[in-house]
Amino acid sequence: MAKKHHLDTTNISNVIDQYKQVYNINVEEGKSSGNLWKQYKIANNGSTGTLDIYKDKKGLYSYKANNESASKLWEFIYENTFIEEMGVKKYSFTNCSSENFEDILDFLGNENKIDEINTADSSVAKRVKIISPSKDEITLTRYNNGRLLFQGRAFAAARDFYSAATLVLNLENKREEYLGLFENKNDDILDSDFEKVLPDAHDKMSEAMLNVLSSSIILINGKQKLSDYCCYVMSACRVLEGVLKLKFRERRLTINNKRGFKDCFEPGSGTNHRMTLDTATNYIKDGKEQTILTKLYNFLRVHRNPCAHFDIIDEESNLLTYEEAVEITNEAIGLINETYKIMP
């Protein structure tokens, strides 16, 4: 019986496009029916391979490959699609140069312990273990073909490392794609907007992500396969809420809920009292960052109703007032402006 896998195939077309670009191999989608979810035909060096991917009623995937080319395509899909097996979460990125890899290690190494791992796998260029101050462990591997793989049981930390690396590797290389997000087609204005909305990844975002990682602020819950632009929005939100949490600590305030902040910026649909990632993306794209801050005030007000995701209390167990929330948030915004220059 074929082994079955947990896959997130939301962006399968993008994965196939990446494969064609990286390996310069023609891949065509064939006909599918019944439990045959997708069929791909791979033309390589005069031979044609066929990859059949099956999906059962439980949403689990299996495959059948008739030659080596088809097997390699499956491996690529497997490594570039969200996978959950035995509690291990995996993320990957393709076409990472050795210089890019060292850049990632440089900015992740300031606050995190990094140990190189020896391996007998000849396909591995370098493998390291990254241990954060909160003892989250991530294994980061760069393969000889440029593929980058993140592995770790600490799901949220793995996602943060993935987002940070994606920014460094890809943000500045997709300028035209991001410019297309803006309605105004005037080149001068677009250049200005681009610089305003997407600051330099190396100088600003890596530092901001490191600050959040080292503070163990894990805020986003939901979908994992996000565009680089959404990763920027996520990061900006993390920085803002991360500084807020530090401000709470300074004032000896406690988040009296195990769920904490993590549901405040959740991808997908949400309630009127919860910011969604799509909404945050549109606000930043439209220059309405202040709306995000206003919503943060509303999060902090905390009425005891089903939409309240956390309570913030002082040493006498008194709830934080709206006025106190505004004051602390303004302090946080000021600190972010002074340090990162990424929020208005």
Automatic annotation (TrEMBL):
InterPro entries: RnlA/LsoA-toxin_DBD, RnlA_toxin_NRD
Sequence ranges assigned to domain Bacterial toxin RNase RnlA/LsoA DBD in this UniProt record: 188-311
Pfam families in the record: RnlA-toxin_DBD, RnlA_toxin
Listed GO MF terms: RNA endonuclease activity
Superkingdom classification of source: Bacteria
The Bacterial toxin RNase RnlA/LsoA N-terminal repeated domain, residue ranges: 90-167
Protein name: Type II toxin-antitoxin system RnlA family toxin
Species this chain originates from: Plebeiibacterium sediminum
Organismal lineage: Bacteria, Pseudomonadati, Bacteroidota, Bacteroidia, Marinilabiliales
